[in-house]
Amino acid sequence: MRYLLLFVVNIFMSQIAVSQIYEVGVFAGGSNFIGDVGATNYISPNQAAIGGIFKWNRSPRHSFRASVIFSNLEGKDNKSDDPRRLERDYSFETSLLEISLGMEFTFFDFNLHETGPKGTPYLYSGISLANHDNYYFTQNGVYTSENTNSWAIGIPMVLGYKTSISTHFVLAAEIGARYTFSDELDGSVPDNEGRASLSFGNTNSNDWYVFSGITLTYTFGRMPCYCGF
């Protein structure tokens, strides 16, 4: 069994050694929230977002991708066009740290070992984990910390366009909505079940947030062997 395990690990490592090049870089842009508090604009960045990104290009058409992005989420009812929210006048702000892992697909071949400029639209999806502090609104509308934090599982849905700007650098612009399986990000549903009576809004609709920005990545690695998966 031990020799079999060593054999499998050796095959896996040899695949990595000759696989397509890697990319490592940064994400910079903005975030906006879509939920029970604040405006309902789908793309309206109001807080800065920054993070890091890593890609393992398995072929000219797909890559495994991981990212870590930090931002504050903010929502203000006085920025909404809903008369009920304007009258309520709630607001919230919470820090958010997202870890995401998934696969990126390009519309056209994007082979970084070919000479000359190249560009293509792309799609990215997978799974995300977003850590956020927990808050709730009192009966008087006071935004109050629960002194706890939670992880919200989500599905990122990203559309972007990337282009090579030199031999080793790739620049991309993207907009990515995250659907979460949580309704707690804006404080409309307290994390503590003992405060369930303080929930408000559409409790059948979960929270969304959007990252809009650019990525700049540096490419490195050996000439690819496009085989396997």
Summarize the structure.
The protein has two helices and eight strands, in the order αβββαβββββ.
Determine the strand fraction and express it as a percent band: over 45%
What is the count of structural domains? 1
* CATH second-level architecture: Beta Barrel
Distance between the termini: 25 Å
Count of helical regions:
2
Largest sheet, order of strands side by side?
1-2-3-4-5-6-7-8
Query: Major β-sheet, in short?
Result: 8 strands, antiparallel, barrel
Please report the first level of CATH classification, the CATH class.
Answer: Mainly Beta
| Residue-averaged pLDDT | 89
Which structural category fits the helices and strands?
A: mainly beta
| Number of E strands | 8
Topology order in helix (H) and strand (E) letters: HEEEHEEEEE
> Which topology does CATH recognise?
Porin
Uncertain stretches of 5 or more adjacent residues: 3-19
Shape estimate: elongated
- Calculate Rg over CA atoms: 21 Å
Instruction: Give helix % range.
Output: 10-25%
Oligomer: single chain
